[in-house]
Amino acid sequence: MESIIHRLSARLLPLSTSSAGPFVGAPGSGNAARRRLLWRCRRPDGKIISSFDVEGAPSSFLPAGASGSRRQTRAAAGWFLGLGGKKGTALPEIIKAGDPVLHEPARDVDPREIGTERINKIVEDMIQVMRQAPGVGLSAPQIGVPLRIIVLEDTKEYISYADRKEVEAQDRRPFNLLVILNPILKKKGDRTALFFEGCLSVDGFRAVVERHLEVEVTGLDCEGRPIKVDAAGWQARILQHECDHLEGTIYVDRMLPRTFRTVGNLALPLPAGCPKLGPP
Ligand SMILES: [Zn+2]
């Protein structure tokens, strides 16, 4: 979820980031074949470099960056210079809305696989992709990995770039990096709030989404230990947004009608009849 911070500075791009969808949505002979094809990846030059087999074959890792924005160019440069991760390795791209893979539910990580090099690499890539974007949350399906893994983090620095009144209204506070495998989200109470949010997979847009103000998320950490997160405010929103991705749901599937707009138009009034932003 990138929405949250509008701009790092006047010199940088809006944080509504995302890059080209790298995946091939070609039809296959059967459902399994189709799904395997769906998770196949391309390099920016169009060459397919690897594929993710949902049945458990080696995962796909592809370079960040493609055509378009300065951020993408920067990301692509990072890849070619080997800056994206370990030297010489490529960071995955963020899949853009419009690719049906974002509407596929993810599957649980097999607990026996937790701690393996493969899962650790996926998590490491997710963290780097999220930070490079930069964003405050990312789900594994957004980098082409159909597993139930989310990462999230919000920092004092990010928050310092946002409007102070907005930060207060959103109940947005910094929190340390969280990595949750196989998360189970429970909405608590019935208090909700309306705010604009965005997504690293929906570049340059925002829409108003109603979210619960308090949630509890249980799951496993990178070492397979049970964890429980009680979250409120903006962190609760991020958790709901990321857990939605694991069900194949993007925020545009939940947005209030007629509130979808470009980042540049965020400050314009809401259409007549739209409820006010914030908690009720
Ligand atoms: Zn998202």
TrEMBL record:
Which top EC class is given?
hydrolase
Q: What is its EC number?
A: 3.5.1.88
Q: Which GO terms describe its molecular function?
A: metal ion binding; peptide deformylase activity
Q: Name one GO cellular component term.
A: mitochondrion
Q: Which GO terms describe its biological process?
A: translation
Listed A to Z, the keywords are: Chloroplast, Hydrolase, Metal-binding, Plastid, Protein biosynthesis, Transit peptide
Q: Which InterPro entries match?
A: Peptide_deformylase, Peptide_deformylase_sf
Domain of life, per the record?
Answer: Eukaryota
Keyword Aminoacyl-tRNA synthetase annotated: no
Catalytic activity annotation = N-terminal N-formyl-L-methionyl-[peptide] + H2O = N-terminal L-methionyl-[peptide] + formate
Q: Where in the cell is it found?
A: Plastid, Chloroplast
- Which Pfam families does this UniProt record tie to the protein? Pep_deformylase
By sequence similarity, the record places it as follows: Belongs to the polypeptide deformylase family.
Q: Which PANTHER family match?
A: PEPTIDE DEFORMYLASE, PEPTIDE DEFORMYLASE, MITOCHONDRIAL
Function of the protein? Removes the formyl group from the N-terminal Met of newly synthesized proteins.
What this protein is called in its record is: Peptide deformylase
